[in-house]
Amino acid sequence: LDNRIVFLQITGDFFLLPETDLEDLEKQLHGVEADSEAIKNKVVSFFGDRKTVIAGASPMDFAYVINKAIAS
Length: 72
Known about the structure:
two-stranded antiparallel ribbon; mainly alpha; 3 helices
């Protein structure tokens, strides 16, 4: 998969409710184009659609960190 996310594991000091949303997000991002806008849109819409409760971070924080990891 050229220029697409093939593996992603998110860890950190935050909490999600429901907890399964973190694993589901990782699965949803598999195959997504490694483009900052595409990732931001996918992450923000994922959490918004699911109404995920996030303590210690925001959807934009997740998008930012994922994009930083891809850029490195």
